[in-house]
Amino acid sequence: MKREVTGIFRGNEKGFGFVKIEDEENEIYISRGNTGEAIDEDEVLIKIIENDPRKEHKEGKIIKVLNHNKDKIVGVFQKSKNFGFVVPDDKKINTDIYISKKNSKKVKNKQKVVAQITKYPKGNKSAEGIIIEVLGNVNQAGVDMLSLVKEYNLPYEFPEPVINEAKSIKQEIAKKDIPNRLDLREKEIFTIDGEDAKDLDDAVAVEKLKNGNYLLNVSIADVSYYVKEDSKLDKEALLRGTSIYMLDRVIPMLPKELSNGICSLNQKTDRFAITVLMEIDKNGFVVSSDVQKSIINVTRRMRYKEVQAILNEANNEGEKELYTKEEKEKLLQECSNYVKHFKLMEELANILKKRRNIAGSLNLDIPESKIILDENGIAIDVKKYDMYFSNEIIEQFMLTANETVAEKFYWLEAPFIYRVHEVPDLDKIKDLNTFLWNLGYKIKTTGDTVHPKAFADVLDKVKGKPEERVVSNLILRTLKLAKYESENKGHFGIASKYYCHFTSPIRRYPDLFIHRIISKYLETNYQLKEEEIVKYNEQSNRYAKNSSECEKIAQKVERDAEDIKKAEFMQNKIGEEYDGIVSSVTSFGIFVELENTVEGLIRFDDLEDDYFIYDEQRKILQGERTKITYKIGDRIKIRVKYADKLSRRIDFEKVFEES
């Protein structure tokens, strides 16, 4: 690497940061004293000052800010007599924004605002700016989520030309195109989704064949039929890249006229789809497959909970009641003709899951949070999201469809976007093993490589044990991030050679692009022109990078939204005591996770009266005088000490047992 390079600075609330260099996997570490005048997301010129191959990150010093990529800051306005400051919500921005008295007359203290930077920080001087929008009081309903929308500059409204184009699309299918499609309207086919799902883009059907194999049909809404290449809808969808789910609102990739309308596979309604037909043997292998444009009519819309209740009844698992007696009787009566379908789905899903487990697919059992909001958008409960085997049925069917499509078009050498999850770095596995050794586990490597089965074996061993959640989290941190690429590199996490995202074209652009490619191949009888292949190859590369970046932003927004609402919920729990488990050990304290998925920090001052030494290799804290140790997986009783949704911070203190 050159001694001087350019990249994008990524700040940290503690003052240090990292610089991302294009096409370089590891970022350059920038210490607090070497960040210069850079703020988060600036394009900078840096000088490499340390290049020790034994360290994960090279170290650099920022010598010049080349370009400021952020000029609008969301924060809380703090008013004084002659001026004011905007304190950024984003703690990675280590400067307040000075607002003159002239520019802050109409703004009240403690209001959430958007400030435009007019002067960037220089030397010891803070940035300066003007307030361009007042969002509302900090505790006003909806202002917290609106602040996130503004902070990430999310496109929360569709431009009028895009809306007009969406409204111009008829809400009934075009009859002239029916003869060109595989007609599956007489088949009994089901959508199975969560309680609140509005965009229903996948439907499934399973049959048992005479030879003992299964026929699995996965039908996905034919979104590319309506979102034409280079249309206003298409360009807007590419810009957004993905739908973003923010608890009390969704920022969709497509307008509701499509996502909740003509593209949604609504019950008892004719819809165009792309169907993957897969014959699967008793060992869970796809022995033959086909991809067709189809027309379907969903027999019934089902929820995960409903399907699980039906399966529980069919399997005589009466102790796992999910509904009242009256609700269950009504459901069973309405679905009496469909029980055989759900039983067959359960049977096939178990076979597919067994095959994946043998292959080494990683079952990271990390529960999702379900945050309950009241009518004003205030968090009133936080708990684990209910997961049933019915969720697993759809998961297994979608994985199989995604693999089948990816493998088919890989061998066609088609322009494509794959979902790639590369093999983890051996150095990171070595660090993980240092910790796992203390618990009696080890990830086995072979030479300079590792097989997913090595991780799967450890996950099997910790199943049901107190340390399961912690080991799962550490393994997740060791793995590389999945991303979109135009080149197939396999998917380590699901132990698959071929994988793509094909099953959610309403909410993910790569899926929509893949649908467009499939349609092109089907319409031309798999004979694309050379210039089309060149064009789509270029697009696949560009769109994959764009979609990966959009996905990162969406994940950050969704995580921040959860953090805000969890802190809001815990603000009313200060002084209450809970049992938790140590989820992380750091040089400044320990993080503890509660049963409801809320995580908080216990600082050293709120532990024993002792000086604690942090052992980074073993990831433990040890008291110098008392020799008391804290390690990941330890159970601990805590009291909520502090919670604040503005800073997105939750602090705990240890509860000491009375002697």
Cα end-to-end separation: 60 Å
Shape: globular
Strand content: 25-35%
Mean pLDDT rating: 93
Compute the number of helices. 13
Total separate domains: 5
**Number of beta strands:** 31
Briefly note the structural class of the backbone: alpha+beta
Radius of gyration: 27 Å
Strand order of the largest sheet: 1-2-3-5-4
Summarize the entry for a quick read.
The protein is α+β, with helices and mostly antiparallel strands and 659 residues long.
Describe the structure.
The protein has 659 residues and is α+β, with helices and mostly antiparallel strands. The protein folds into five domains: 4-67, Beta Barrel (OB fold (Dihydrolipoamide Acetyltransferase, E2P)), CATH 2.40.50.140; 73-138, OB fold (Dihydrolipoamide Acetyltransferase, E2P), CATH 2.40.50; 160-419 and 495-562, no CATH class; 423-479, no CATH class; 574-654, Nucleic acid-binding proteins (OB fold (Dihydrolipoamide Acetyltransferase, E2P), Beta Barrel). The protein has 13 helices and 31 strands. The strands form nine sheets. It has a five-stranded mixed beta barrel with strand order 1-2-3-5-4. A five-stranded mixed β-barrel has the order 6-7-8-10-9. It has a five-stranded mixed β-sheet with strand order 11-18-17-14-13. The radius of gyration is 27 Å and the shape is globular. The termini are far apart. The mean pLDDT is 93.
Primary descriptors:
659 residues, alpha+beta, OB fold (Dihydrolipoamide Acetyltransferase, E2P), 5 domains, 5-stranded mixed β-barrel, 5-stranded mixed barrel, 31 strands, globular
